[in-house]
Prior knowledge:
This protein has 259 residues and is α+β, with helices and mostly antiparallel strands. It has two domains: 5-27 and 44-141, no CATH class; 147-252, no CATH class. It has helices spanning 5-23, 46-91, 97-144, 172-183, 196-200, 218-230, and strands at 152-154, 158-161, 189-192, 209-211, 234-237, 249-252. A hairpin with a 3-residue loop joins strand 1 and strand 2. It starts with a helix and ends in a 7-residue tail after the last strand.
Amino acid sequence: MCRTYRNLLSLWLLTLSLLVCSNNVWAQKKKTKAKPKPAASAPASELAKLREEYVSKTKDYKASLEKLLVYHDADVKKAEEKLTTAQKLFADGLIAKSQLDEDQREVDAAKEKAAETRRQMTSADDQIAAILVEEDADQQLAKNLNLAKQRLVRTASFIRFTGGPGWNLSEAWKVQRFFSDTFHKELPVAVFGQGAIHDRWRLDHRNSMDISLHPDSAEGQALLSFLERSGIPYLAFRVAIPGTATGPHIHIGRPSHRY
């Protein structure tokens, strides 16, 4: 949580570009006449531009995987046909068991390559969906910061509990004692007060602390229940939200406003 999301996103863009080029070595590109694209409005910010580029690169990466999968599936078919022949020869006593085992290993290896490519394709879909969720959550978060009348705000990406008045970071000991008494270990505090990541994102985090727990985990759920019973405000993030949260965690305290 101490590395900026922008740096991570930029690194992913570079990695995706390299992966697309690598995968396309396996599949020949079809030359098609490019259709003129309608003029698009300029991205509202550097972050919006990074998101757009990330989604585009991820789609290119998935397309290269789809081409690669055709070759892997063909390898699986060939290996299975070879194994079928080997099984017949072995039954007739014409080949050794070691040869049959080797052919079986080739089938398993070919299937694993195809399965791994499918997993990467699914991951690409998940990454695109996550970016879209993050963008929507970022917009909702900006709106919900002003919804003081709503004590509990839930979205697909985060939960916000406004809590009662008077929260101060000096009360952190209450949270730490609850967690240690309940789970017999220290509260996993990632950032206490203002951190370097908050300085870079220009977020006032002086009266808050970040806890390295997924809000949907058993420990996370217990902590959220305690905070609500105690009237302690929090923001629980299920996913990363560019410029706001580097990943799943529980922010204890009022939302960190930008300065």
